[in-house]
Amino acid sequence: MKGRNYRTPKGRPYTRRKYIRGFPQPKITKFTMGNTTGDYDHQVSLVAQKEVQVRHNALEATRMAVNRVLELELAGNYRMCVLPYPHQILRENKMINVAQADRFQEGMRGAFGKPTGTAARVRADQPVVTVDVAESGLDAAKRALMLGRAKLPMPCRITVERLQPA
């Protein structure tokens, strides 16, 4: 099954893990990276422009791409957070596509499907990844988020905000 089949959020969220057996864990396990105790003056965010479901694979690919660039260029002088958590459980009714498959398969009888992955529901204008940096690291953070934007299944924009001094 392709990711585009799960891109648009349909119906109510399917998240009650208490009633679902055998669902896979999300691939993304680390949501905050970098120096979490540092003092930063700017926040660069990757903001979704459309309402969409983002699979856990895409969130992990974005996290890896952004973190790789930030680690190389800023050497730990940043704080990066991946904000949406993949709660939505995705199901698939697998079909066999070989000759004489009708002997082995029941078609649409009991077609509720088996859990195949997880996804996060993202609203329009919701930040997906935020990076806190000093003023000297703004260009590196923008470049990293541009690479991460390519891994997501939606149009995104990059915003820069100045953080208030504590």
Structural class: alpha+beta
Please indicate the count of domains. Answer: 1
CATH fold annotation? Aldehyde Oxidoreductase, domain 3
**Name of the CATH superfamily:** Ribosomal protein L16/L10
Strand content: 25-35%
The order of strands across the largest sheet is 1-4-7-2-8
Strand and helix order:
EEEHEEEEHE
Low-confidence stretches: none
Query: Could you give a short account of the major beta sheet?
Result: 5 strands, antiparallel
Please give the CATH class.
Alpha Beta
Specify Rg, calculated over alpha carbons.
19 Å
Q: What is the CATH-assigned architecture? A: Alpha-Beta Complex
Number of helices, where a helix is a run of at least 4 consecutive DSSP H or I residues? 2
Mean pLDDT: 87
DSSP E strands, number? 8
Binned, the helix content reads 10-25%
Explain what the structure shows.
By secondary structure, this protein is of the alpha+beta class. The protein has a single domain, classed as Alpha-Beta Complex (Aldehyde Oxidoreductase, domain 3). Helices cover 19% and strands 28% of the residues. It has helices at 56-74, 138-149; strands at 32-34, 42-48, 52-55, 78-82, 88-92, 114-122, 127-133, 156-162. The chain has a five-stranded antiparallel sheet, covered by helices on one side. A three-stranded antiparallel sheet has the order 3-6-5. The model has no long low-confidence stretch (mean pLDDT 87).
